[in-house]
């Protein structure tokens, strides 16, 4: 099991930016698929972005062009740069790590970090 610790959430005005970080507890995740999911009140958890060990990334349509996922395998850390934030981006954001053989939405999860976009 991999311990994941998120940081970087907070309150931001519409149009603002935030950068989330997720540090993994051990070196195994260097080969894992890592990603960010979010869950808004009353809604199901949804995929935001994922990135493979080789750096290939995929995004939800709702965040394409605004969010960028990246990773530093030497630091066992994945990042989510969020620009042009909208109120509908408000949610708890969760970091996820899974071996490539496992399906999306499985694996290990962080405790979540709140992102609130409001004026």
Distance between the termini: 39 Å
How many whole angstroms does the radius of gyration measure?
13 Å
Q: Give unreliable regions as ranges.
A: none
Number of helices: 0
Give the biggest beta sheet: 7 strands, mixed
**Could you say which overall geometry the principal axes of the C-alpha atoms support?**
globular
Order of SSEs, N→C?
EEEEEEEEEEE
Mean pLDDT over the residues = 94
SS-based class: mainly beta
Share in helix: under 10%
**Tally of strands:** 11
Beta-strand residue percentage: over 45%
SSE map:
Blueprint: E1 4-7, E2 10-12, E3 18-24, E4 33-39, E5 46-51, E6 57-59, E7 67-72, E8 77-82, E9 91-98, E10 108-109, E11 113-117
Parallel strand pairs: 2-11
Antiparallel strand pairs: 1-3, 3-8, 4-5, 4-9, 5-6, 7-8, 9-10, 9-11
């Amino acid at each position: 099991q991999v311990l994941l610790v998120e940081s970087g959430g907070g309150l931001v005005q519409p149009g603002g930016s935030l950068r989330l970080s997720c540090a993994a507890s051990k070196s195994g995740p260097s080969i894992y698929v890592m990603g960010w999911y979010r869950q808004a009140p009353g809604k199901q958890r949804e995929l935001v972005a994922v990135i493979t060990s080789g750096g290939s990334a995929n995004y939800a349509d709702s965040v394409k062009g605004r969010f960028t996922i990246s990773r530093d395998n030497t630091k066992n850390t994945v990042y989510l740069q969020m620009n042009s934030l909208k109120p509908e981006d408000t949610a708890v954001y969760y970091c996820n790590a899974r071996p490539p053989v496992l399906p999306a939405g499985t694996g290990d999860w962080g405790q979540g970090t709140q992102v609130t976009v409001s004026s």
